[in-house]
Design brief:
Chain A is mainly α. Chain A contains eleven helices and two strands; from the N terminus they run H-E-E-H-H-H-H-H-H-H-H-H-H. The chains are: A mainly alpha, B alpha+beta.
């Protein structure tokens, strides 16, 4: 009876995996074969990938995507860390306001945010009207809940207030204690949040398309352009983007796993 | 002049008056306990001394110096926290060396002090382990070592044993007391456990509702409670009203009277010794408390509790009639 249950649960998991992987596998197959007019595709070729990797515009697009991912994530993380320092050390009662503030981005539909940003800042003085600044700031808003929640959970988990007090009793200032004692202890958690945020920004098309349009080609925009020319190449772009996102997420899960193991040992 | 002086300390949290004009002197080398129930202000006073809380008014003097508004880092006070507060990313050795490095001591001096402290708390061999791999008792020993490695003027212990099991707690009580004596420290210990306070302290300050209810050495605190609260908190005293005392002894009393449970004499046969009051009672209930049996007895319509050493489980059964005697000097007027 127990064995049957075991087989049943395994079968369900297998079905879910197939269901989730099927579109990706099909995309991969489509990117590797020239023709697919029968049941089995024909004309195996890596030409789409060769073209893609030989196109400097693609690498530029990937590079831009990484830059517009890294910059807002870095800035957002620094701002949240500094804010949490003030909250943990001086005003713990302010955390509920921070919590509310960081929940708001969840409630905003993807397309509304960039449209609002555009209408508010297009005619604003420089640097606010700069598309790059708008883009970075908008992404900072989008990823704020993920960064905040990750940092906050980790601060609570390590008992940041208590650690700072202990460090103070050993001769450290509050600021020194926060950066020398607390941050090293939450670093793996922060990294997980950062990677999740990176995956979100990497996968965005709506915000980048609305705010930057054709002026600033990212990987997503590049893919949109390629779609008009070749289906096979589009599939290759999707596969490459998937692999990049997978690597980022894999890194996040790896770190999460390590953190979990350390907690288990504790 | 005392080594530590608290002068008229008041502390408010909003409208909540947590410390009400505390005046307390602590002599150098004493092991002083702040004892009281949760929320009585004992930990707040300790944190004011540490500098982790600011007083609303009043002065704190340490070694003739006004430290009321000094930062914790400038007070040279060591502290052991209830939840250890060890740095998880540092090994035992690194935890101990943290403060010494901040003082920019030479590496050899740091090495020596860390080694000495580890030896003192009997953690040799654990130097390179991380806190997460240590047991609760071992972590608290590291916290203790970290508290003394700085050679502080005062060592503060904020309920350091409350998260530790009973057996280990007893062993750590002894360790803390020994280290205190060996290093000639001045220690201020916070606890809500009266037994722990009795075992460890030179002086006990009993807190209640933001004021010090009574101060004294453990024997005085135990045998001469000055208020109903002190009698109730310290020794499981029977606190009887004058009318109850009249029923019990047949004479008039003014004010409440506290009687320790172990001062009652119980016997199956009439008691002929020179006790002041001799009565008859009925056993209502019996509770085993390790080496002591606690009886609830109805004597002249008054319920009292009496403790006897647990020599035999069949000493008195519920419903038995017993002879009860009580000496006059064991009736403490409050």
């Amino acid at each position: 009876m127990e064995k049957k249950k075991h087989i049943g649960s395994k079968a369900i998991i297998l079905l879910v995996i197939i269901y989730l992987m099927l579109p990706l596998v099909m995309t991969l197959v489509y990117s590797l074969f020239k023709e697919w007019i029968d049941v089995v595709p024909t004309g195996f070729s890596i030409a789409a990938y060769a073209e893609l990797f030989g196109d400097s515009a693609f690498w530029m697009a990937i590079g831009r995507t990484i830059i517009i991912s890294v910059l807002p994530i870095f800035l957002c993380t620094v701002f949240v860390l500094l804010t949490m320092y003030v909250i943990v050390v001086y005003h713990p009662e302010w955390d509920r306001f921070m919590q509310i503030l960081c929940t708001i981005p969840y409630a905003i539909q993807g397309v509304i945010l960039p449209i609002c940003v555009l209408s508010l800042y297009t005619s604003a003085p420089k640097p606010f009207s700069d598309r790059m600044v708008m883009l970075v700031a908008t992404y900072m808003v989008v990823i704020l809940p993920y960064i905040y929640q990750g940092i906050k959970n980790n601060l609570t988990g390590v008992g940041a207030g208590r650690l700072i007090e202990a460090a103070q009793m050993l001769g450290a200032s509050k600021l020194f204690a926060f950066f020398r004692v607390v941050i090293p202890n939450i670093m793996s958690g922060v990294t997980v949040s950062v990677m999740l945020a990176m995956a979100i920004v990497f996968g965005d098309f709506v915000i980048i398309n609305t705010l930057a349009g054709g002026h600033f080609t990212t990987a997503q925009m590049y893919m949109y352009d390629v779609m008009k020319k070749s289906g096979q190449r589009t599939c290759a772009v999707i596969v490459v983007l998937f692999v990049v996102t997978l690597l980022i997420s894999g890194g996040a899960f790896l770190l999460q796993g390590r953190q979990g193991k350390r907690k288990e040992r504790g | 002049m005392a080594y530590i002086e608290f002068q008229n300390i008041d502390k408010f949290y909003g409208k909540n008056h947590v410390l009400k004009g505390i005046n307390l002197n602590i002599e150098k080398g004493d092991f002083v306990t702040l004892l009281g129930p949760s929320g009585c202000g004992k930990s707040t006073l300790l944190r004011c001394l540490a500098g982790l809380e600011q007083t609303s008014s009043g002065k704190i003097i340490l070694d003739k110096e006004d430290i009321t508004h000094k930062d914790p880092k400038d007070r040279n006070i060591g502290m052991v926290f209830q939840h250890y507060s060890l740095f998880p990313n540092m090994t035992v050795k690194e935890n101990l060396a943290f403060g010494l490095k901040l003082q920019k001591l030479p590496a050899a001096e740091i090495e020596k002090r860390v080694k000495d402290s580890i030896e003192m708390v009997e953690l040799i061999g654990k130097e390179d382990e991380y806190p997460a791999s240590l047991s609760g008792g071992q972590q608290q020993r590291v916290a203790l070592a970290r508290g003394i490695v700085m050679r502080p003027k005062v060592l503060l212990l904020d309920e350091p044993l409350s998260a530790i099991d009973a057996k280990l707690r007893k062993s750590l009580q002894t360790s803390i007391r020994e280290i205190h004596k060996e290093l000639g420290l001045t220690s201020v210990f916070v606890t809500h456990d009266q037994d722990e306070a009795m075992v460890m302290s030179d002086v006990i300050n009993l807190f209640h509702d933001g004021v010090i209810e009574q101060s004294g050495n453990p024997v005085d605190i135990y045998t001469k409670p000055e208020t109903s609260f002190a009698a109730g908190f310290i020794g499981n005293y029977n606190i009887l009203k004058p009318e109850e005392m009249k029923k019990l002894t047949g004479k008039e009393w003014q004010g409440d009277v506290a009687i320790r449970p172990e001062t009652f004499l119980l016997s199956n046969t009439p008691i002929t010794s020179g006790e002041s009051y001799k009565m008859q009672g009925v056993i209502l209930d019996r509770v085993t408390r390790g080496n002591v049996l606690r009886y609830k007895i109805l004597v002249n319509d008054v319920e009292v509790q009496a403790d006897l050493l647990f020599r035999s489980a069949s000493m008195y059964q519920i419903g038995d009639s017993v002879q009860v005697a009580l000496a006059n000097h064991n009736c403490v007027c409050l």
